[in-house]
Amino acid sequence: MSYRKFNTSWMKTLGAAALSATFLAAPQARAADAETASPVRIVVTGITDADFIANVFAGFLEQNGYKVERVKADYAAQFVGLEAGDMDFSTSIWDTSRDIMDAALATGKVQNMGSTGVKIREGWWYPLYVKELCPGLPDWKALLEPACVKALATVESAPKARFVEAPADWTTNNAARLEALKLPFVLEGTGTPAALHAAIVGAVQRKEPVIGWGFMPDWMTEQYPGEFVQFPHFEAACATDPKWGGNPDKVWDCDNPYGYVWKVANTKSEARLPRASRMLRLYHLTAADVAWGIRRVDVDGIESEKAAEEWLKAHPDLVADWAL
Amino acid sequence: MSTTNRILLCDNVWKVYGPDADTFLSTREQPPSPEDLAAAGLLAAVRGVSLSISQGEIFVIMGLSGSGKSTLLRCMTRLVEPTAGSILLGGTNLLNATERQLMQIRREKMGMVFQNYALMPHLSALENVAFPLKVQGMKRAAREARAQQMLDLVGLGGRGRHYPHELSGGQQQRVGIARSLTLEPDIWFLDEPFSALDPLVRREMQDEFLRLQTLLRKTIVFVTHDFAEAVRLADRIAIMREGAVVQVATPEALVLAPADPYVSAFTRDIPRAQVVTARSAMDLGPDAAGSAGVAAAARVIDIAERVLAAEGPVAVLAEDGGVLGALSREAVIRLLLAQPHTRPAPVQ
Amino acid sequence: MTAVELRSEPESRGDAVRGAGAARLPALALLAVAVLLCLLPQFGVEMPPALAAIPDRFILPWRQWAGEALTYVAKDSHIGPVMVSEITRGIAGVILQPMLLLQGLVSKGLTVGGVELPPLPWPSVMLASALLGLRFGSVRLALLTGGALLYAALFGLWDATMLTLASVLVSVAFGVLLGTWLGILAFRHPRVDRALQPLYDVMQTVPIFAYLVPILYLFGFGPVGAMMATVIYAMPPMARVTTLALRGVPASIGEAAAMAGCTRGQVMRLALLPSALPKMMIGVNQVLMLSLTMVIIASVIGADGLGAVVLKALQSLKIGRGLEAGLAIVLVAIALDRLGQAIAERRPQHRDAAGSRRWALAFAVALVLPCLLAPMIPALANWPADWSVSTASWWDARIAQMNLAFAGPLRELKTFAFLWLLRPTKLFFLAVPWIGAVTLVAALGLLLGGWRLALSCGLMMLFVAGCGFWEPAQLSLYLIAISVALALLIGMPLGLACAASPRFNAGMRVVLDTIQTLPSFVYLIPVIMLLGSGDFPALIAIVVYAVTPAVRFTADALRHVPGEIVEAARMSGASRWQNFGWVKVPLARPGLLLAVNQTVMMAFGMLVITALIGTKGLESDTLISLSKADPGRGIIAGAAMAFLAIIIDRLLRAAAGGQAARP
User: Fold this and answer.
1) Tens digit of each residue's pLDDT (9 = 90 or more) over B276-286
2) Which of A118, A190, B235, B301 is paired with C465 by a 20 to 30 Å CA distance?
3) Residue C353 with chain B: CB contacts under 8 Å
4) What are φ and ψ of residue B235, in 5° steps?
């Protein structure tokens, strides 16, 4: 896993020169008009999957003669930048953080540019061996069995079981779900994806029983064999109407909706970057593409930009669709 | 001393600390006593001081710590803002001067030496001395040439590149003295300049100071808590106590006629021969032998050897050369032997 | 001297301890009532619900007000026709320039007049740093400054290190300038000083997340936002030290300057500031170290560099890589710290003038020669990839081993700590009724300082109780209480040993510097892997961080006991322990209380990290507010945290008799 890298600035200079030389002759280069004069600012958050999605699009824009600035931002804080016009595009907004996305869209300064096509699956995740302790999984009712609860309990959570909860700023609806489904679980907080991964993976490495918030695409759910618990399927009424579902008094007696990764843009950016904005709307990947990128970056240890470059090279047919 | 050439005049100067000190003072008809002030929650550092200082004179302000002497000096330079009174320097009232005028006056007329040298630690000796010139925007070469002259004057010519921490206390104060003289001030303020020095160095610096004064003839206001030093250097001494001036007189007059027990307590340890002049010790009458007389203003200690070596009484001469009287060996011996703590035998 | 003493007197008289005698009895009575109120729930006595927790209907909508106010300031406020945000953005643009210049110089390359220049080759930077060490220190320092950069190059962290170095240096420069300016202002106007003190406490205790949104709005994205966050946290010591240093300059220096005919500005610029400079360097060093502790937080909000490498590595649990990058931060911090100290301790020598030209020449050669050679020898331009090494996989294997081997015994320890320490304390704090807490704080204020202190502390506590975050506040307090107790328990004996043995002290210093600057995530993530997240790793994080001031200030307090008094005690026949217990500790009491105080403040400062590993107190509210687009929640939770910190600070300082000076 040794990191051996060249001085990136040197590489960039060389790379940019090579790229511009190649594409000056290419037909796309004709579009290198006023629009490409100013840089396109795309959010990168340091989260592997999000950065891969962003870098593929960034690399694609660069192939089309754009100058791209990858602006490093905190996931939540990026919306401030998008509203204020410090950033043009963000390619990786998860349904999980619906609140902040909706708030940003409500200001009228940020607009939805459609889904990336990347489906996300998130929910209660466990490594396969937990099935032995909680027979009946992945059906959620297996979690109500005292033996299962006991196996998943820790000193802090006892007599209830422990659930490794996502960072407090993610919308998991778990607190409501515990009540609605009367699950004997305690939510153990984690403040960051790093802590979430550490808490689950640490136990997985020791082959200890553990259950927590998992999501796809993500390196953890990629790397370790596991499954998601199946709760009653989500329907819109479940989130709003207590009467819906098994518990007539509570909402969220169901799973989270399966969502998508969304693309958003600053509203003014479309006027400045009409062509790039159109490409953004057309830009789509699949969960499998992103999973591939995550493996390259988190498992093989190459840089996200490099992985994106490789992917672009390997899929010229897909890429051509975005430039229509 | 003559009043015609007085250069610095303090008139009823007050410095009172505390809330609304100035209104408290101005609404009083009688000057308040320390008790009045304390009752009002105020603290007086200087109480109604009036002084006049003449051209070319060494005027020493003597007092114990807390007597207000340094505050008085700082009122004269307006480093401390007096609460009431007036301070006339060559006819202009310092207290009416604007900040800018004051700055100009300090640049042209005043020099000051501090107890703890107050050298800038980040500047070399030469740069410290050149500092007042730099402030006025003088070019580096010119100001350093001038500073070098000043360092030569105080005998530190070779140490210009040294930094304060590389110099001894005495050397540092020489730099301080050179700096205070760089702008050729009319009045030279010295605030306990030698108090922080070892006794031997102090003595040496006092000699140096007197040597400079014979060269430069400045008007000097010198603050000290050391009565022996005051006696040694002063033309006149003002004794301060609790912010007020108790007595202003020549060293001789102080010793011979202290105004109150407080002053006489200081004078007790002073050998009489050190302060008594030939004029006071001489016998009246033209009974002098020999041709070479002694000056009337000379102190007995300085001329004792000559008088003792002479055949008979030595003539005491006025400044114009006229004979005023004669100084006998007996009178000199009596003064030399006089126990400092007893009053000297009345001079015949 | 007389004048100086007299002049300073009216100002210094104000803060003296009051009420020690007169108000003692009622204060003690009030204290008894307060303790009773706090303890009642422990004995199963049911409080009326309105006294246990302030009923919702009495809670003012602070959150909403704060949110609206913030949104207004950030988005809509005007000065005349100009938007405030436009002004601040202009300022940000100005600040950005030196940052871009420095980053371009050492990492990204510069474009001057259309010509693209590559960044300085690594040998230039490395040699120049080693020369700096040699110039101001010794060969050892040169090895440290050069070696730190060699480490960065060797481990493939050159670019990240250069980015971090550039942004830290610009942040420090900005923090020092701002701090100096504020320090001067406070020195000249005691009233400004009094107004700024609580503001500094707020700046150092409120987690950045609470005000991140307005900062980003006002100063835009990118390095400036992160820099602002860094400066807000790291600047206060500079301002405080500047004021203290200026007060420490002998009054006669200023008078000498005034007598030399200086204007007011010249007195400050030419005399006071240069004279205060050596002491002010302590402040510079503090800013430096605090800026480096902010590297991780800065990267959370978008700064590039070593912090981003650490964070990214830890996100996929590449702990070895995180550790390598974390150690690079430590090395850079220690190198900069020692270099700064060497510069601060250096006094001008009269021989210097002759040598400085030769040094300048040496620097020029070190900088320029590699630049000239680099186009011909690529290995000089870029550190060759096959020269790099990595120990990451080794570390990862060790961590995995440890995870298997130690999880069991460690869990025993955790179980013990949880059952006997964490849970009882937590339950105790959660049961404290608000009326008890407010009364307790007021009673202590009355006892230690007087009615004024009692009133201000009581009101602040009332705000905490009534702002709608009472339970999170108790959760934060519980964590602080345990970790401060542990930090003192560990730190004070170590400080004692440091004061006694210079050799121990030298070793301890490296340890303390390391744990102060090593991003805590590097060791917290393994801890979480072993023990799960939540309060226990949070406790470790705070204790590790807060032990530093406990050790340092304890050692400091004991070292400054006058030697003569200790000798006098020894001559009176006091044994070693008598001397310690009866002489040293009482004499060092103000200093020891300061140690407690600083430990508490550091613990509050660390809460921002614990939010990132899943604690549920006020700190977590500031973090959540960010992603729920609810700025009011963050700012009020942050204010509550600051108030708690200020209450404890003021009470402890009053207990120290107002003598304890701020560092």
Assistant:
1) 888 888 877 65
2) A190
3) 161
4) -80, -45
